[in-house]
Amino acid sequence: MDVGTKTIGLALCDAMWTIASAAHTLSRGKFSKDKAKLAEFMTEHQVKGVVIGLPLNLDGSESPRSQASRAFARNIADLGLPILLWDERWSTQAVTRMMIDADTSRARRDELVDKLAASYILQGAIDALTL
Hints:
By secondary structure, the protein is α+β, with helices and mostly antiparallel strands. It has one domain: YqgF/RNase H-like domain (Nucleotidyltransferase, domain 5). It is built from four helices and five strands. The protein has a three-stranded antiparallel sheet with strand order 1-2-3. Helix 2 links the parallel strand 4 and strand 5. Helix 3 packs across helix 4. The longest helix has 25 residues, at 106-130. The radius of gyration is 14 Å and the shape is globular. 26% of the residues are buried. The model has no long low-confidence stretch (mean pLDDT 94).
């Protein structure tokens, strides 16, 4: 997950933990409704664990957004899935650069960036955990 203040980018990986794919972007609203949508998504896609992007400062220190991501993780812990917080410092920049290089329009980039960032975060975790 790429948890932002306005949206939550979601990605999924295959059962063999090989490749992450962008899945969906949820618009954020009231937390209870967001959590219900996440639970429905997780059930529908048989999710077995959650990776949440942890936005650290460039020097690796925590930021206010890091604390918000940690709080989000605590608030969804009762969904009963293992949760891993993963460094996401370069995720949005990396996928934005990729889309610019692919000559993607600004409107299309805005539509895709969160779920692509989520897949970038998830792929980083997969790669690190399976090497």
